[in-house]
Amino acid sequence: MAAAPAAAGSGAGRGRRAAATVAAWGGCGGRPRPGNILLQLRQGQLTGRGLVRAVQFTETFLTERDKQSKWSGIPQLLLKLYASSHLHSDFIECQNILKEISPLLSMEAMAFVTEERKLTQETTYPNTYIFDLFGGVDLLVEILMRPTISIRGQKLKISDEMSKDCLSILYNTCVCTEGVTKRLAEKNDFVIFLFTLMTSKKTFLQTATLIEDILGVKKEMIRLDEVPNLSSLVSNFDQQQLANFCRILAVTISEMDTGNDDKHTLLAKNAQQKKSLSLGPSAAEINQAALLSIPGFVERLCKLATRKVSESTGTASFLQELEEWYTWLDNALVLDALMRVANEESEHNQASIVFPPPGASEENGLPHTSTRTQLPQSMKIMHEIMYKLEVLYVLCVLLMGRQRNQVHRMIAEFKLIPGLNNLFDKLIWRKHSASALVLHGHNQNCDCSPDITLKIQFLRLLQSFSDHHENKYLLLNNQELNELSAISLKANIPEVEAVLNTDRSLVCDGKRGLLTRLLQVMKKEPAESSFRFWQARAVESFLRGTTSYADQMFLLKRGLLEHILYCIVDSECKSRDVLQSYFDLLGELMKFNVDAFKRFNKYINTDAKFQVFLKQINSSLVDSNMLVRCVTLSLDRFENQVDMKVAEVLSECRLLAYISQVPTQMSFLFRLINIIHVQTLTQENVSCLNTSLVILMLARRKERLPLYLRLLQRMEHSKKYPGFLLNNFHNLLRFWQQHYLHKDKDSTCLENSSCISFSYWKETVSILLNPDRQSPSALVSYIEEPYMDIDRDFTEE
Question: Measured between alpha carbons, how far is residue 248 from residues 71, 284, 411, 499, 645 in Å?
């Protein structure tokens, strides 16, 4: 189903309203005695002592106070509910009382959503606040968990209808009253128990939505291996239930974000990894393993992700699900939008379904249906989009986890990629219609739009799927794989082994593969589109790893280089994120490829264009340094080749001529070292350190390393800060040793992307860190004694 509006969960809006409620009802309009009761109950709720429940008052007392304070009879109803919910009760009276309480709270919850939608002045929600204050939440938790209690060997049972009412009331209270969701999240046994209520289709949606809300605020991640009979529970879900369950899984399999930027530094990440090694697998990793152990789990996700709209559930079952959601406020905004779409299409197509507006008097709030029961097509599509969003997210997280190779194998086997290829035009990248669903307060181009979110999630999945994995060739069809082979044959180079090993029965079918389709929409994307970043990242992941001439030429033949240069130079792109992704992609596309540099020189054919290009590069080296690295590496290779074609490019290409100049390299080197420090290194900017090392490694090959270090020293002095740069670089290299000498993946990536053996990387760093001040290649030889500061401790405790 649709993603829940954040404000209806546990956001700031709920907190403001709860605060307003406390203020309004704590003072109670100048009636201190009822106010004192509420304050005492609130104090008891916080401490667990004193007044905590309605049962601690007499019914006469509560009735008398209710006349003054207008509590809507809620405390008295709770008193009756407590009396009728004892262990030996048949719960019939209990259910009748719940039916009385439920509308008092559901009206407030609906008002809450309406107020959020209209952004009106603050409103208080006294009924849900009073219900919680007099112990209603704790009482419903006890009632729901009665089946866990055995009497004389027999477990108590309560009806699905009663469970449904309890869940609905609990959720409405969570929506309107601050702190309730967090208190429920602290009851770990209750959270685990809630999973067992999803075995019933009647209570599934209410349970799933409440669990999602609770897990969203839970401090510690729940462990799925503690859920009783998890495998059986998930295996018995139908496809719609499984898709909704993915919303819960999204919270349980993703590593928890601390929300602190400092924790994203490499220093902090390294410290956290050391700590994690001593603690064992994280809860998210345990949960991923638990899911992958369920027979057929990934296969069912792949079927959901690739299911066509025509294959989705029939109208009757979808109507039943909409009926459930019609009274379930988590998706009120989305359902409201769906209703609007249906009504719009009804006017044009005489669609047969008419939805009553919220608050209509129709019994049970059910939609009317005429003799025909066909849903509007846009409603079916949106229904499917909501499902696929959650499923693609779960698959994407699993692809990035510890069991990546296992997930890759299963995704390939179950033909996820060909299935997505078949959905590309009609669903994933379909054209917007005038009635396309968007959330209130947003537009079709907003990242919150379901259409937009699906596209981004799809691109993230492609990026994870292609990144450093030979299965990336499944993004092509048979004809395109043959084209790769032909490119290698024409260039007289060995065919890529991964292409030869690709199972042709698992690749895309049709006239175009998924990668080609992506390139087509990428070139048509408007300049201001938020998709440009994700599209470039997805295509770049196809090129990552060991450089493949055939892969590059496949993309060059489709005009990718010209498109990138147009975006960087002619459109003068301003977005830093998009620029970084385009520079990274351009670097991978051009690296070691003479044909790419020829194409570059043909497009950047004037000094004016070249100056615009250089301005974009120099505006932020954090964004462009990967391109600088790739061009520097390519220049070094070309200079060592004896070939007329290469010689021609070297003599004509403005970019190669620019990079070949020592002053240019020194300018880049100085700035790359100066913009990073050990304490601020992140996964994003550590590339600056590695690019500076590439420049110095290539200088070392030419026996020019002392020259480069001496020039850095002179540049320091010219800035009137002797020692500041080389001390910083010394610290950075010490961190580099700690970081990379213990991480196989990172070292392999460095080696594959640079075509420089990792042993040469290590040797160069060791030479630079040599403590011998007599060594002409040691950093300390160029730092004067008074300015020496190389032993600073940068580790975190």
Answer: 35, 12, 21, 38, 57
The runs of H, that is alpha helices, within 400-477 are 404-413, 416-423, 450-466
Which of 374-378, 571-575, 665-669 reaches the highest mean pLDDT?
665-669
64: left (phi over 0), alpha (psi -120 to 50) or beta: alpha
At residue 695, φ and ψ (nearest 5 deg) are -60, -45
- Residue 574 CA to residue 527 CA, distance in Å, equals 10
For residues 645 and 227, what is the distance between their CA atoms, to the nearest angstrom? 65
Contacts of 193 (CB under 8 A, 6+ apart): 144, 145, 148
CB 126 within 8 A of CB 21: yes
What letter does residue 51 receive in the DSSP assignment? -
Please identify which residue in the block is written with the tokens 């406020």: 329
Strand-strand pairing, 353-354 and 368-369: antiparallel
| Separation of alpha carbons 141 and 194, rounded Å | 10
Element (H, E) at 154: strand 154-155
Radius of gyration of the chain (CA): 32
Phi-psi map region of 441: left, alpha, beta (phi>0 left; psi -120 to 50 alpha): left
Please state the pTM of the whole predicted model: 0.82
CA 751, 755, 760, 766 torsion: positive or negative?
negative
Tokens describing residue 654: 């403005």
> What does the H/E/C string look like for 592-604?
CCHHHHHHHHHHC
Buried b (16+ CB within 10 A) or exposed e, 644-654: eebeebbeebb
Q: What is the DSSP letter of 364?
A: G
In this prediction, residues 253-266 reach a mean pLDDT of: 64
Q: Which residues contact 387 (CB under 8 A, 6 or more apart)?
A: 1, 240, 243, 304
CA–CA separation, 555 vs 544, rounded Å?
A: 13
Which helix or strand (DSSP H or E) is residue 369 part of?
strand 368-369
DSSP string, 93-144: HHHHHHHHHHHHHHHHHHHHHHHHHHT-S----HHHHHHHHTTHHHHHHHHH
Instruction: Write the CA distances from 175 to 12, 81, 661, integer angstroms.
Output: 12, 22, 64
Per-residue pLDDT reduced to its tens digit, 694-737: 999 999 999 999 999 999 999 998 987 888 899 999 999 999 99
For 177, 200, 225, 677, the CA distances from 203, given in Å and listed in that order, are: 23, 6, 22, 54
Other CB atoms within 10 Å distance of the CB of residue 72 = 16
Helix orientation angle between 662-674 and 686-701, rounded to the nearest 10 degrees: 150
- Residue 568 phi/psi, 5-degree rounding, is -75, -40
H or E element in which residue 353 lies: strand 353-354
- Identify how many contiguous H helices and E strands the chain contains and give both numbers: 40, 4
Per DSSP, the three-state class of 85 is: coil
Question: Can you read off the two tokens belonging to residue 585?
Answer: 């992609």
Check residue 80 and report its DSSP letter: H
Identity at 737, one-letter amino acid code: Q
**Which of 460, 10, 7, 410 minimizes the C-alpha distance to 254?**
460
List Cβ neighbours of 567 (8 Å cut-off, separation of 6 or more). 527, 532, 573, 578, 582
Cα 3 from Cα 5, distance rounded (Å): 7
For residues 699 and 399, give the distance between their C-alpha atoms in angstroms, rounded to a whole number. 39
Give the residues across from 682 on adjacent strands: 265
Confirm if 251 and 216 have CB atoms less than 8 A apart: yes
User: How many other C-beta atoms lie within 10 A of the C-beta of residue 402?
Assistant: 15
Query: Is pLDDT above 90 for 418?
Result: yes
Q: What are phi and psi of 788, to 5 degrees?
A: -70, 125
> For residues 326 and 435, is the Cβ–Cβ distance under 8 A?
no
Per-residue pLDDT band at 337 (split at 50, 70, 90): very low
